[in-house]
Amino acid sequence: MYNVRITASDVSNLNNEPLELLKKNGFDVKEKPFKNIKNEEEYIEFIKDADALLVGTETLDKKILEKIPNLKFIARRGVGYDSIDVDYCHINNITIARTLGTVESSVSELTMAFILALTRKLEEHSRDIHNGIWNKRLSSGLKGTTLGLVGFGNIGQEVARKASVFDMNLVYYCPHRKIELEERYNVRYVTLDELLKISDFVSLHMPSTEETKNMFTYDKFKKMKKTAMFINTARGSIVNEEDLALALKNRIISGAALDVFQEEPCLDSPVLKLDNVILSPHAGTFTYDTFYSMNLLAANLIVDYFNGVIDNKFII
């Protein structure tokens, strides 16, 4: 019998189907949400006998992975994997799989919500009325504006599909051009510098890697329009937060919306002191439907892996 340990939050409390699936297939399943674990010692004690893990964004670095000698498989609920030491896993024959195809809708919805909120000045209007001020602010709207997508994977493509409904012009940059998708999404490939120069909205949809860490610094923001808005629903490490705060404070760009941060929870950052940035607590995937889909797919990936039938498209 293989041991499955679940540290991702909001699994059985939302729907017991993933645990039932695992148990039906003969796994010994124990669940302890990481948010309820007091310290690293308790974390390691809980997962040390695991053959498979079902995890969220909790850290699995070399120091921790070395203490799970039987570990064969990690089901990452979500698509980012910067919290996992991928090199160690590859060297030690630990397979990592992600729940691709489950997060695109909810993250792209949040991206569009940010764009709409920034454009129509929803934060300012709401704040005014709460303070007893009736002040109608003019805004540009979205029709005819340009949305620049930095990264054009599954989430970027879904943002493009949604944004096209608002009659926006779409451009994208990614390291490897995707010509076969350009006509489908009515999107044009440009260099990063060109994207920054022409976009009214710059939205990040890249993974956190050694190549993308600290990719957006003050110099990048200086290349954007002064009226431009910056959106990050990808990973906080891609952006130099201090430089972004300085660009916002100096009105180098007009506004920003962030769902991700360099340090999470984000309780001490220069962006917290600014009134031209909208913040949310890394909640891009936090819808009931998305969590149900992610949890069930993660459980199925564990079953498929140990049955030798896992689809390689999910594997890192």
TrEMBL record:
D-isomer specific 2-hydroxyacid dehydrogenase catalytic domain ranges (all copies): 13-308
Gene3D superfamilies: NAD(P)-binding Rossmann-like Domain
PROSITE patterns named among the record's database cross-references: D_2_HYDROXYACID_DH_3 (PS00671)
Highest taxon in the source lineage: Bacteria
Signal sequence annotation: none
The keyword Oxidoreductase appears for this protein: yes
InterPro entries to which the protein is assigned, alphabetical: D-2-hydroxyacid_DH (IPR050857), D-isomer_2_OHA_DH_cat_dom (IPR006139), D-isomer_DH_CS (IPR029753), D-isomer_DH_NAD-bd (IPR006140), NAD(P)-bd_dom_sf (IPR036291)
Keyword entries, A-Z: NAD, Oxidoreductase
Record-annotated D-isomer specific 2-hydroxyacid dehydrogenase NAD-binding domain positions: 112-284
Matches recorded under PANTHER family: D-ISOMER SPECIFIC 2-HYDROXYACID DEHYDROGENASE FAMILY PROTEIN (AFU_ORTHOLOGUE AFUA_6G10090)
Family of this protein: Belongs to the D-isomer specific 2-hydroxyacid dehydrogenase family.
Name by which UniProt lists this protein: Phosphoglycerate dehydrogenase
Gene source species: Clostridium cibarium
